[in-house]
Write a structure and sequence with these properties.
Blueprint: H1 6-23, E1 29-34, E2 39-44, H2 52-66, H3 70-79, H4 81-90, E3 101-105, E4 111-118, H5 122-135, E5 139-141
Antiparallel strand pairs: 1-2, 1-4, 3-4, 3-5
Helix pairs in contact: 1-5, 3-4
């Protein structure tokens, strides 16, 4: 399994912040987890509300825990709400099944982690997550 290094995790955060600035978004929080679901890097821009860190982590956690981007989890929540509710119960409420959590894959397609972003509309959060992942030289998986 590939290992997500701190420098790369920080590059993801920087890339996400850069994209948020380019889009003129509200302040965002960015959580980067390694392939084992451990927090590798976290930063929140000035002005984020106090729940944003938890939401960002929940988007990344759900993605890494279930092996799909949180957009896919959002679709599952719409199609099978009882199943996603059960999964959320199993994780103690840690999943946030809305867009903004993406898987991070290396050049060989190996899973190296996930990033979750919260602060603006979910589609904008996801766009920043993808930009951050790509800025660090990885491939983002959104669903």
């Amino acid at each position: 399994m590939s290992s997500l290094k701190l420098a790369k995790a920080n590059a993801i955060v920087r890339g996400a912040f850069k994209r948020a600035g380019e889009l003129g978004l509200k302040p965002i929080a960015v959580a980067v987890l390694d392939a084992g679901g451990h927090l590798k890097a976290f930063q929140a821009q000035d002005g984020t509300s106090f729940l944003r860190p938890g939401v960002a982590h929940g988007k990344a956690y759900g993605a890494i825990a279930l092996g799909q981007g949180s957009r896919g989890l959002n679709d599952a929540a719409l199609e099978r709400p009882h199943f996603v509710q059960a999964l959320n119960g199993l994780t103690g409420g840690a999943l946030v099944p809305v867009p903004g959590g993406v898987l991070i894959r290396d050049g060989r397609g190996n899973l190296v982690g996930a990033v979750g972003i919260s602060g603006d509309a979910s589609d904008n959060d996801e766009a920043c997550a993808v930009a951050g992942v790509e800025a660090a030289g990885y491939t983002a998986q959104t669903d």
